[in-house]
Amino acid sequence: MDPPPVPPPHVIIFPLAAQGHVNSMLKLAELLAISGLRITFINSEHIHHRLLRHAHIQAHFAAFPDFRFKIISDGFPIDHPRSPDHFMTTFNYVKSITKQLFEELVSAPDRPVTCIIADGILTFTIDFAGDLGVPVIAFRTISASSFWACFCIPRMIESGDLPLKGDEDMDRDVTSVPGMEDILRCRDLPSFCRVADLSDQLLQYVTTQTLQTTAARALILNTFDQLEGPAISQIRTQFPNLYTIGPLHSHLRSRLSSSSPSPSSASNSLWKVDRSCIAWLDKQPPKSVIYVSFGSITTLNRHDFTEFWYGLVNSGRRFLWVVRPDSLAEGSSGAVPEELKEAAAERGCIVGWAPQEEVLHHGAVAAFLTHSGWNSTLESVVAGKPMVCWPFFADQQVNSRLVSHAWKVGLDMKDVCDREVVERMVNEVMGERQEEFAAAAGDLARRARNAASEGGSSWDNLDRLIEDIRSMKP
Ligand code: UDP
User: Fold this and answer.
1) From 249, 299, 356, mutation site for ligand 1 pocket: most ligand atoms within 8 A of C-beta
2) Which keywords does this Swiss-Prot/TrEMBL entry list (predicted)?
3) Contacts of 365 (CB under 8 A, 6+ apart)
């Protein structure tokens, strides 16, 4: 009699309940699922409800034979509004239920657990899983450079780079982040570093979570070797088991086109996508539009919103602008200044949520005015579009510096929101320096696609990661 077939490795994937984190960890989950692994994806009820209300997304995940969602609460009722202010409450709530959650998952006799891939900012998972004999691999959704800067916070404190000494200190070079001495000024450090008091709760939290990642069996980053070489080689000295497997969205596309049968790729968007902007783009001349989006959580105050309006209209360029229903900070009215209305109607298109990857690949789009979220940055890199960066918070301050100073594919307007600067930078990127930036962005896009194609560094690293998982005993 033949022995019973060996079940595939079973991986539990556990992201922080926020759009950017769920987005990239779902892509990782799909990459592992199409490689034949059994997946349980832990999702918050609130996000799950918003994600899977679309029939095509339900059908997409149902096409994977061994893919399941495990739904948990994030500590708030399903229809309660969410914002970054709720972060610590959610973190503490999820921490309080994780031990029991893992015990339940690990004791299911039909699905023995091989390992857990947990969001690298939920490092309490490492101890809880360790008690059950299950290894944890950490996944960080930010750039390698931002991760490395956070890892070096204790060195920055020891060397006196931190705390920052006020506004006059912001353009000083940071000397205590090895490998990044030529890139980072104080202004470019993650925004948590902008505190006078080193006991600040968020700074402490980010530092602790980042350092504790070393207790994980391995670390996965959504980047590729040629994009962030200096930071990646430094991180390798602390994390010998490092898997750089990005850009994940491009990697997923390559694997889907070479897998058989091949499920189609799906957008993991939590918002309702307004596709009318594609019809609008179809009517615009090639390379004539600047795409403007500040991601899924950034909010603008009235001053900044108005300055962007004037800057964009005064640039004389066509623009496609994503203004989410919750884009404006409380108390800021969203009205377009009266005197701009005619020009805006002639040259602008506004939507609540765009199919961003498709927009960035559209021939009418020449450049991207972005808040420098890591997913947006990678999507722009893969699409070969130059950027004008207006980083808002967290890791975005580092990413925008990479764009302007390491890769030289755009400009960084960090810490300034002024209509003349917006106008000047948009015109530089779309006009006088367009060829220079487009050539550099095209070169970077080729490298990104090569890394995520068969034989590329990210492709090979994912194969190694899968081998590592297959070698673990459930
Ligand atoms: N996005 C989108 N449509 C929009 C705006 C954003 O699909 O109109 C997606 C974008 O493609 C990216 C994500 O939302 O994948 C934003 O992630 P990012 O890391 O750039 O920023 P965050 O939202 O975390 O600040």
Assistant:
1) 356
2) Glycosyltransferase, Transferase
3) 281, 287, 289, 290, 291, 320, 359, 383, 385
Structure confidence at residue 389 (pLDDT): 98
Is 110 one of the catalytic residues?
A: no
| Residues in the chain with pLDDT values less than 70 | 1, 259-268, 331-334
Q: Give the DSSP letter of residue 107.
A: T
The pLDDT assigned to 268 comes to 64
What ipTM was estimated for this complex?
A: 0.99
CA distances (Å), 305 to each of 18, 294, 339, 423, in order? 24, 11, 15, 14
> Is 119 part of the annotated catalytic residue set?
yes
Nearest partner of 229 among 446, 435, 17, 407, judged by Cα: 407
Residue 185 DSSP symbol:
B
Taking the C-alpha atoms of residue 418 and residue 238, their distance in angstroms, rounded to an integer, is: 41
Name the active-site residue from 46, 60, 119, 395.
119
Per-residue confidence (pLDDT) for residue 161, from 0 to 100: 96
DSSP string, 340-392: GHHHHHHHEEEESS--HHHHHHSTTEEEEEE---HHHHHHHHHHT--EEE---
Long-range contacts, stretch 390-395, CB < 8 angstroms, 24+ apart: 390/294, 390/414, 390/417, 392/294, 392/295, 392/298, 393/191, 393/298, 394/142, 394/146, 394/190, 394/191, 394/192, 395/142, 395/143, 395/146, 395/190
Q: What is the pLDDT of residues 66-117, one digit of tens each?
A: 999 999 999 888 888 777 778 888 889 999 999 999 999 999 988 899 999 9
- The encoded tokens of residue 456 equal 């590329």
Q: Report if pTM > 0.90.
A: yes
DSSP string, 305-317: HHHHHHHHHHHT-
What residues contact residue 47 under an 8 Å CB cut-off, 6+ apart? Answer: 17, 19, 22, 74, 270
Residues with CB under 6 A from ligand 1: 19-20, 23, 269, 293, 295-298, 322, 353-354, 356-357, 373-376, 379
The pLDDT, as a whole number, for residue 234 is 98
